[in-house]
Amino acid sequence: MLRDLALLLIFGWGFLQSFKRPWIGILIWTWISVMNPHQLSWTLKDQPFAMVIFCSTMLGLLITKDRKDFSLAREQRMLIVFMVWMCITLPFSMLFDESFELWKRVMKIDLVVLVSMVLLHSKRQLMWFVWINVISIGFYGVKGGIFTAMTGGNYKVWGPETSYIEGNNEVAVAIVMTIPLMRFLQMQMQARWARLVMTFCMLMMVLAALGSNSRGALLALGAMGLMFWWRGKNKIGPAIALVVIGAGMLSLMPAEWWERMNTIKTYDQDASALGRINAWWMAFNLAKSHLFGGGFMVWTGVIFAVYAPDPTDVHAAHSIYFMVLGEQGFVGLFLFLALFMLAYGSANHLRGQGRRQPETQWLSDLGGMLQVSFVGYAVGGAFLSLSYWDLPYNMMIMAVVGRRWLARKAWLTEKPEPLIVWPPFAQSWFKKTPKAMPLS
């Protein structure tokens, strides 16, 4: 009950704050949507906290005196076009009732993404946004890593119930995508103990991804590790460290884990892999026959019977690419790919331009780590259905807000803001009257 009371207090505080400072409402919404903390409670699981925060934040957007930026970045324009296309395809859905329910959920997520780019503008707000995403996934990753170490990898790591990342494959790729964001935060830390704690958390995240028994996560880890190594100035030292750490973690995995990972090489003999390929062919055949795709929720026996090579082997898409292809057609897939290519390009812009002056080095760090995260999403997402989930779009928000901050040279006009401001009555509790936790 104490856990439920604590959550209620946080939700209540966020609800009140979102009217005056709607960017805080964005943070609370992100926490609820990505982490699903109410699913960890006893009595609050079915309460519409996300909708309440969404409504209060939208109202706060109208009445707040805080800075708002209604200019449209290229990612925003592309996302709006993608949203319009999904609205166009909805009436042509093969299973309209089922599609309509998911369409409402996707539209709400995308609308919050657009609103987030309007409300988030300062370094402090952007750093908080990164922290919220890291904490939301890091909770399951660090806990899952410790669980994997204690059980010798004999049990799978799962995500929160009734969420996008409930499955072992989905939570694993979410964990993998969050590791570079953790590394970004670590690069901003100066205290040695904080950097050590973050190192421990990242190691546990890797162990949790392995403990999920997800082959897609293993491939994503490999791709991200290769990118980390390639960008490093010293190639030999990091390579040795990666090999040693990787060997140590892999040695914890049981024989069953190795047997499953070996099926990557023999996918043509694995029923799960063959089922995914069958679903991919179904999506391709469906998109060829229907310009608007089949709409959301086409992964059913009725539709497989018409378009799949094996009509009896019904599977979910298990691929962000084929999921969008089957549901939104080739036009939808093009818009989806273009959206994240633009976001990757903005992250690359931050990485290159941010290193030109010390005040913007943190943006260079952020851009580089976002690129690594996007690579993890591109590789791991090829094997799971997370086309519309929040975290990849949240990373796009980070790239857009960071690029705007850089373009307007905000370090020249923006007053340095602490990440956490202590209340006045608490300042007397400290000898040196600390006012805040530093940003970097």
UniProtKB/TrEMBL annotation:
This is O-glycosylation ligase, exosortase A system-associated. Residues 2-187 form the DUF5935 domain. It holds the Pfam family Wzy_C. It is a multi-pass membrane protein. Keywords: Ligase, Membrane, Transmembrane, Transmembrane helix. The chain crosses the membrane at residues 47-64, 76-96, 127-147, 197-230, 236-255, 291-308, 320-345, 366-389. It is found in: Membrane. Residues 201-337 form the O-antigen ligase-related domain. NCBIfam families: PEP_O_lig_1. GO terms for molecular function: ligase activity. Its main location: membrane.
